[in-house]
Design brief:
The protein is built from 13 helices and no strands. The chain is mainly α and about 240 residues long. Helix 7 runs parallel beside helix 9, helix 8 runs antiparallel to helix 9 and helix 10 runs antiparallel to helix 11. It is elongated.
């Protein structure tokens, strides 16, 4: 009886005994969506890490949106407070999901796990140009980002930029677009000030090159103007 098995899955979750983990993992193979959803919910309540990999496989492949959502939520509960000791790559991918519910649930799950590796994916997922991101999902992502200190955010930005000054400043600006971080603002202003002399030298060098090109072009046209032979002008034009 599918309905009975679905209800029993929730009951096992309420008991919160790890003795039920194996049976609930088996229920995740059922064809009935409600049974799989309830099994995922129950495993999240039991918080047995043996279920983590199985649930991880369901967050992107299960045909049911509800099973995917429940799996993400349960992984957040199982890995609650595990931080940088767990791999969250597959979870962060779901921040880009078109489903509004999954966007928010993923942000909340990442907030529970609190692995700093989610900082850059959160910043990228909040891209203002993104059309499929709901306002409430953006707020949930902001709330998760704000769980991290400014030092943790800076460390992740520097790591992602890999000594690329422009990328580092771009990432800083993306964060500051969403948040009024004082320390990050100071870091951004300081780095921009350091880049000004460098770019001034580059602009001066480019200007000198442009002036040289302009002078060359002017000479070319001056010489062309002195040629009276149509055939010579035609040959020069074809060459150019």
């Amino acid at each position: 009886d599918e309905e009975y098995r679905a209800k029993m899955a929730l009951c096992l979750g309420d008991i919160k005994s790890k003795l039920a983990t194996t049976a609930l993992i088996e229920l995740l193979k059922e064809e009935n969506d409600e049974t799989r959803e309830n099994a995922a919910i129950a495993l999240g309540k039991i918080k047995d890490e043996r279920a983590k990999d199985v649930l991880m496989a369901h967050i992107s492949t299960d045909p049911s949106e509800y099973v995917r959502s429940s799996s993400i939520q349960s992984i957040g509960g199982i890995l609650d407070g595990k931080g940088s000791s767990v791999d969250i790559k597959d979870i962060t991918k779901m921040l880009r999901n078109e489903n509004v519910s999954i966007q928010s649930i993923t942000a909340e799950a990442l907030g529970k796990i609190k692995n700093p590796a989610c900082i850059i994916p959160l910043i990228k997922a909040m891209d203002p140009a993104r059309r499929d991101l709901a306002a409430e999902s953006r707020q949930d992502m902001l709330n998760t980002l704000q769980l991290f200190s400014e030092d943790e955010i800076l460390a992740e930005l520097k790591n992602a930029a890999q000594d690329d000054e422009n990328l580092y400043l771009d990432l800083l600006d993306e964060v500051l677009f969403q948040n009024p971080y004082e320390k990050l603002r100071e870091e951004s202003d300081k780095n921009k000030e350091q880049l000004i002399p460098k770019y001034k030298r580059q602009f001066k060098r480019v200007k000198n090159e442009i002036d040289s090109i302009n002078s060359f072009v002017a000479d070319v046209f001056k010489n062309l103007a002195s040629i009276n032979s149509f055939e010579e002008i035609q040959t020069i034009r074809d060459t150019i």
